[in-house]
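Key idea: predict the complex, not the pieces.
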Amino acid sequence: MTASLDDLALIARGKVREMYDLERVGEEGPTLLMVASDRISTYDAVHPTPIPDKGKVLTGLSVFWFERTEEIVANHLVSTVAGVPPEVLGRALVVRRLEMLPVECVVRGYITGSGWKDYQATGSVSGIALPQGLRESERLPEPIFTPSTKADVGHDEAIDFDGAVELVGDRALMERVRDASIELYSFAAEHAREHGVILADTKFEFGLDNSDPDAAPALVLGDEVLTPDSSRYWPAEGYEVGHSQPSFDKQYVRDWAAASGWDKRPPAPAIPDDVVAGTRGRYIEAYELITGEPFQQWLERTGA
Ligand code: PZK
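Result:
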């Protein structure tokens, strides 16, 4: 018997998703329900207008990547259907409960965003010295691991590798986390490139599975993975160094918001119908380009 969402305890709420406690303790130990909404944020503010199917697209993309990266590192995905309440089918996952590590694991293959700002100011990002003369959005000689703190409120703060070791308290574990993060990024960026999309950077979160009292805690990839909300995806067509790149998914909203005169401070404005439709189309296009399958198949597989 599958619970209804109303019967579950909310344990965490992000800007655009929720985490619930599931009663079910199966063979895999305690589990949670991670639910993606259709809410969208730009400039750190959530708009009052949802993007239909956004939560399902992001959930389907996470599952695509979880299924293809198991050989790099174990992940928390337990089920896409069994145990998922009917009202959130297609946009929720049953996941293993982990003890999350207190660092955000950012990997950058291109110099952009806060990395570009730090590079311009210091020539380094997270303590990693980069070649001189890089231009905005340029591909890096190799992907770099640039961890940050997990801020409860406000912005995550960049830290160097030793800072991450200090937060986690285990250098050997942090080296495995770094190496897995870079391998995951490299695998996904190569796949995306072959499908006409640049994966500029991404953020992972890891945890430890302590559910077997007789085994050593296992390193497990958690959270959502390689979605447009946790990553910067750029269209390969039109990519050009020397300036910022349009976001694959959010550029319609950003362009409309800029032209609307919104000062980018909360509250974010409602989004007009044509911008909603264009943005929904971009999310579905991202799903279909990256996975190579019609989005409809995700809906059918999950009974959404
Ligand atoms: C966990 N978050 C972030 C906040 C969300 C997600 N497998 C796990 N085990 C224990 N805790 C978490 C996870 C995962 N993933 C992740 N908070 C707790 C977060 C708000 C909404 F969907």
